[in-house]
């Protein structure tokens, strides 16, 4: 039930307790002993020590056999207790963090561990989200807020989240208690990018007479361990404790065993065989007399010192000092050793696995180039883009008189050439403006509060600042601002563009600029599966409805109209290390949009296969025969010292593997500039393979090439792992860079 007061399910679900510890009071001793004695090395010395309690087998003092073993076990147990105690301490801190719960009597402060499914929790800026929630309200009138997910998925970009529409429209927070309805949420699962749910309000919603059902998706959720980056939010708890996405993606803590321990264990087995052979030889030389097996055991115990238990003592003490040394190293301050059982493994690393964007690169994008088939523009020629925008806009009629004056003041220059547009002909200024306008509209970027002026039409010389989950989109919006089309305001339902291009240069960036306002009818966010992002907008000025979409050339090539230049230009930009996006647009009649909207609403409330149904409707009604407006190329520069670092790792024999969503040509360019490729080293590319036969031939070629930098695309890798998994891995792991 939506109202937490009459919620009978609160105690039905898991408690909201974080628990990462391995042991409790009862299980500590048996589990630690089991983990230790499952290794032959320790088991051998246990049996030798126990043998000294048998009078016929006793040799020397009991303490000389039992003492070292007890010491080794004591050190190991002390380290395990210390590590587990640290885990419990961190868990206790997380479970006791205080949160404000909204009730009919107002706010009440409770610890995180007391939160239950159905609670309304208030999250403030920079506060950690304690459980998985549906976002009901935010302090932003638009219902939007941003979260940081770096503790969940490792990404540093801010993610946009949107409050459920029925509750965001309420006059105040306490209005939630006047609603009668329910929240449907699917069963808990691991996927942090997928959520299917519905918010149903039966009655109590102002302005609505009947039941209202709003679909809920991942964009309406706040997952546990994310952090609210803007405003204040109210969330309805749907998953707690072990049912949260964060907990389901966290493996159970287990005892880790290093390569060195495994090697010592294997060598101890070999030494045991040596002692057994020696003991048999000694018994044989004595002629296998009466109770020879007792003699055999006595010789085994005598020769047990060949397997040095002191080595195990030294290893354990060494690991303890390594851990202390790492934490106290002034060159790597604030480093925490989470596991003191395997610190020596740092010296045996063979592979460095790295993402590209935001890890090797700065994640600070800059739009470097735009190509529109017959013309290309760079940052250096952006003045020409501004001129085209002015020439296109000066003939339009705006409400603002100052706009007309500004337009008259603009120097008129003839268009460079005319190009085809649908069935009509249009000049270059129109085509350039369509591209700039589409780039300024098709995104999920929001101007920040401090950069938006009270009057959106007033231009100021200070550059705007923006929030978005994608740095590519911020780079594109900054470029449109640079050429005079500014994203002045954005809400959930509208976008306002300020046309600074029409302000005369004599006003030095100050003055009243005309604005264009658009209603947002639909937004189709980018996903790693679709590789594209779309928006449907309606101009308040002309009433025209446009579907604008941008995405990877691999998917956009089949969506846009036929052209003969896209593939070639994508390749050219990729070879220059630029990330490419293809932009297309389609004009919709009101009747066509209504047909789409009806089908899309039906798909949005489907419970089973909702995402697939929604995507199919978009594909059937919108994603065909788009006019190709152009291609953007965005640069993401490498972080400081990345080339030097990767070169040093390579010289140390560490193999570097990089994952990137870019084209093969871009990946090649980045690999060279990041010094993943050694001087004079061969770069071997495997791409576009569709069949097992092709992959087999490629692997045979790769075998003969020897050590090289391998660049392989996703399609080829998929086929290789399906048909030649072991063969591919056997070859790839030997290469110095992949």
TrEMBL record:
Q: What is the name attached to this protein's record? A: Aminophospholipid-translocase
**Originating species:** Linderina macrospora
